[in-house]
Each structure stands twice: as C-alpha cells, then as structure tokens.
Design goal:
The complex is a heterotrimer of chains A (about 240), B (about 230) and C (about 60). Chain A has about 240 residues and is mainly alpha-helical. Chain A has eight helices and no strands. Chain C is rod-shaped and about 75 Å long. Classes of the chains: A mainly alpha (about 240), B mainly alpha (about 230), C mainly alpha (about 60).
C-alpha cells in the first residue's frame, strides 16, 4: 500500500473509529499501569533529594505535565495546519480535541509548579522562566479555545484556528527565548526548580516511567475526545448507526 | 473601491489608490485613531496618580508603562481596521481584484501603522518628560517604537482579521494577540533598561529588527489568508 | 524503600502537604478529563441510537 493511500485511510473517520475503539483499552491499561508503577516508585522508593528533601517528588508529575503541555501545542498546530491546507476533517477533530487537553496539562504543570515553589522558594509564585513561559502557553491555548468557540461555522473555525496555531507555533520558540533571556536579566532566585548537577538513575528512572504513563494517558484521552467529535459530527451517517 | 476588470490598473496604481482611500477614510473619522491616543495619554497619567509621583520610581517603571500602553492602544487602534470593509462589502471587492490580495494589504496596513505610529512618536518627548526619562533613554525609546510598533500593529491586525464580523470580537482579540506580543514587550523594555544603566543596546535593536522583518514578510500573507477565511462565511 | 515507616511516608519529611496536594490536584484534574470524555461519549451514543430508531420508524410507516 502506498503512502498516500495510507494517509487517506487514516483520514477517514470510519477507519479511525474502528482502530481507536480497538486501541483504547490497551492505552488505558498501559497508562494506569505505568502511572501506578512510576508514582509508587517515585513517591516511596526513590531516594530524597539532598537539597530539597522530599518535596522534589513533585517532579514525577510536574515534568511530564509540562512536557505534554508543550508537545500537545505542537501536535495541535500541525494537525490544524493539515486540516486547513488539505481539508482533512479528522485532522481538525484531532486539533480541536488537543486544545482543552493541552490547556489542562499546562494548568497541571502550573499548579504543581506553584505548589513545589512554596517549599523550595518560599513563595507560591516566582517569575521563573519556565513557569512564565508555561503561563504564556496557557494564554495561547485559551486564545485558540476562545476563537473556536466564537465562530459558529465549523469549517471556518477550523481554518481560523489553523492560522492562529501556526502563528503561535512560530512564536513559541521566540517567546521561550525572550522569557529565558528576560530571566537572566532579572536574576533574583538562585535556587531553581529542576536544576541539579546529575540525577542518579534511581531518581530519573521513575520519571521516565511516569512520563511514558502521562503520554499514554494523553493518547487515550485524545482518542476518546476525537472519537467523541466523530460521534457528534457524523451522527447521521449510516456506518455509525450500524455500529451502535 | 470599484475596480472593474476592463480598466484594471497596474499594481502600483492599485496600491496607491488603496493607500489614498484608506488615508482619506481615516482622516474623515479621526476618532478611530485619536481615541487610542487619548487612551494612551490617560493610561500614562494613571501611573503617577496611582503608584507615586516620585521621580526615581517613575523612571524605573517608565519603560514598562509606556510599552504596555503602546501594546494596548495599538490593539484598540487596529481592532476595527477591517470591520467597516467587511460590513459594507468592499472587502469582497478587494478580494476579487486581479492583484494578489496580500500585496494590497500592505498599502492598507501601512496607513494604519503610520496613523498609530506617527502620533505616538511625535508625542514621545511629552510622555517621556512626564515620566522623567533622560535624553539617552528617550532616543532608545524612539528607536524601539520605530522597530517594535509596526510588528505589534501587524500582529494586532492579524487578530482583527481573525475576529472580523464576530460578535464577541473586542475582548477576544486581546486574548489572541497580547501573548504573541510578549517578546516585543520584553526586548523593547530591556533595551530601555539597558540604556538607563549605560549598557549597549544594539543587540536589542537587532532582535527587534529581525522580528520586524519576519512580521513584515509573513504576517500580511497570513492576514490575507485569515480575511479570506472569515469572508467565506 | 526511602521511608522507614508509614507515618514517615505520609509526612514526606515535612513536605507532605505540598507533595500530596500536588498529586491530589493532578489526579482530580486528570480524572475530570476522563469523566468529561466518557460522559460525552455516552450522551452522543444515545443520540445516535435515537436518530437510528427514528430512521427505522420512518422507513416502516
């Protein structure tokens, strides 16, 4: 089978629906197991940090959430540009499902970062470069969600969100760079989150496991939300009615 | 703008015609660009009243105050720049001219950038002295405005294009555009702070210039795409 | 095992409040995402069934 046929098959909601329903239980299982193992390992078995004590254990949820927050934005931007250029509806459904999920993971990163900041810096909020760029990322997500909800026609909303996501995607490294650079100008805290000489493997291995767990969970949620979009947009089609 | 297929003018004349028309229209509705200017002046006056009229403190916060003011007033000025054309249908006319739409937009956007930019630049010494900026800082402020204001106007115009004809456009455009303008705010204010401390500012100008080139190259095409999308509703 | 007793584990060397609240908030938010997705799926499937029923009813009469 050549590439373009493969591409088009995955672009069909029917095909996607079939495989999403088959894949979902596996992803759900994997994410529960990986998150369970990673969190118990990280919370109970990995050694505590010599500087931060046990509060560093928040790393096992903070870092995966922050990483997902950024990756989801890239995925969303790519998906919505594909939807805009090649008019693939499924791609728009993926992009639309990404926006709220990405916002939630960014919020998780911000909240856990703030909670971690209290014992580490002594304040809930520090204008740390990473936290600040996560905050701006959240604004970008909120902008996309607001734009989508303000436009009633679905195709128009898809394209407009595509334009905005594209600009945001190009702007994201510039924002990141400017914020990092702004922080070196106004250096106030010498003690940063996530800055360690070298983490021993018993510390970063659980992080790897929870990271995998978070990505699996996101993949599962994305399949669920995208399938929901299919269920809504294709409610009148025969193949869907035959399946339920 | 009535461009008939028969006497379709060459591109330069079309650009000039759009430029003149836009200029005339803005001239006849001076409140469209005077109001944001008044807003800017009032915003600057609020800080001495609200924070403190003390000289040292005002000098310290002046770059941030002025640049936040520029960001918001540009947003206000450009917010409705496609609204009237969208409502009376002349935007559709522009879309179907034989010339590439995004090239025509350059003429239109230039008017808006000049109209918000020129008064801000001309009056800069006024609010500069209101916030006790010295001459060196004023110079740097002028250059950051020259380099940064076109970028943020283009970005705001993209927001205006994406929200044209939407009922909840007003607040939405701020949410869309302000996060994207943060790098300009950071680099422009940093240049002024560096100038206050007597450090070199050329690096900041280089970055602002690079962002300006990027914006001028790509944003009009994206604004054109956004308008095409929104008109197709 | 990094902790000697169960109470040690809960107190997390004095940082228990922070660690457990961070994990709790994360857990709640993720659970909310899952719940919203599942509930919406349920409603949408009901809607599809209703549409299908109406169709068969219309074709019969």
């Amino acid at each position: 089978m050549n590439f373009s046929a493969y591409f088009h098959r995955w672009g069909s909601p029917k095909y996607f629906h079939t495989y999403a329903t088959r894949l979902s239980p596996w992803l759900a299982g994997f994410s529960v197991v990986l998150l369970g193992v990673g969190m118990i390992w990280g919370l109970a078995f990995s050694p505590s940090d010599y500087q931060q004590g046990d509060s560093f254990r928040i790393i096992y949820i903070h870092v995966p959430a922050a990483s997902l927050g950024m990756s989801i934005y890239v995925l969303m931007a790519v998906a919505s540009v594909i939807a805009w250029v090649w008019k693939i509806k499924l791609s728009d459904m993926v992009a639309q499902s990404c926006a709220p999920l990405g916002a939630v993971f960014t919020v998780i990163a911000l909240i856990t970062g703030a909670i971690w900041g209290k014992p580490t810096w002594g304040t809930w909020w520090e204008w740390d470069a990473r936290l600040t760029s996560m905050l701006i990322l959240l604004f970008l997500y909120l902008g996309i969600i607001a734009l989508r909800s303000a436009i009633e026609q679905r195709e128009v909303a898809a394209k407009a969100a595509g334009v905005l996501a594209l600009v945001g995607l190009v702007n994201l490294p510039i924002i990141k760079y400017s914020v990092d650079w702004w922080k070196t100008l106004h250096q106030s805290s010498t003690f940063k989150l996530l800055e360690k000489p070298a983490m021993p493997p018993e510390m970063w291995l659980p992080l790897l496991v929870t990271m995998a767990g978070f990505y699996c969970l996101f993949a599962w949620l994305l399949l669920r939300y995208t399938t929901n979009e299919i269920l809504e947009r294709e409610a009148k089609s025969q193949w869907l009615q035959d399946r339920y | 703008m009535s461009l008939k297929a028969a006497d379709s003018p060459v591109l330069s004349r079309a650009l000039w015609a759009i430029f003149c028309r836009e200029w005339l229209m803005q001239w006849r509705q001076p409140m469209e660009w005077l109001n944001p200017l008044c807003f800017f002046i009032m915003m600057i006056a609020l800080f001495p009243l609200g924070v403190s009229p003390e000289k040292n403190l005002l000098q310290l916060i002046a770059p941030g105050v002025i640049w936040a003011g520029i960001l918001l007033s540009t947003l206000l000025a450009v917010e409705n720049c496609f609204k009237q054309e969208y409502e009376d249908g002349s935007l559709d006319q522009l879309l179907i001219t034989p010339h590439p739409f995004f090239l025509l937009l350059y003429a239109k956007l230039l008017v808006h950038i000049l109209l918000i930019g020129l008064p801000v630049i001309l009056l800069t010494p006024v609010w500069g002295s209101m916030l006790f900026l010295d001459t060196a800082q004023l110079k740097v402020l002028l250059i950051t405005i020259l380099l940064g204001l076109p970028t943020i106007s283009l970005m705001s115009a993209l927001g205006a294009a994406l929200t044209v004809g939407l009922r909840r456009g007003g607040v939405l455009i701020a949410l869309l555009v302000l996060p994207l303008n943060i790098p300009i705010l950071i680099f422009a204010t940093a240049a002024m702070q560096a100038a206050a401390q007597g450090m070199s500012v050329q690096g900041y100008f280089a970055i602002l210039g690079a962002l300006l080139v990027l914006a001028v190259t790509f944003l009009p095409a994206l604004i054109a795409a956004a308008l095409r999308i929104m008109v197709s509703r | 095992m990094a902790f000697s007793s169960w109470t040690d584990f809960v107190s997390m060397g004095g940082h228990g409040v922070y660690v457990w609240s961070a994990y709790g908030v994360t857990f709640l938010l993720l659970l909310a995402c899952v719940w919203v997705g599942q509930r919406r799926a349920k409603k949408l499937i009901q809607r599809i069934k209703k549409i299908a029923e109406r169709k068969t009813y219309a074709s019969r009469s």
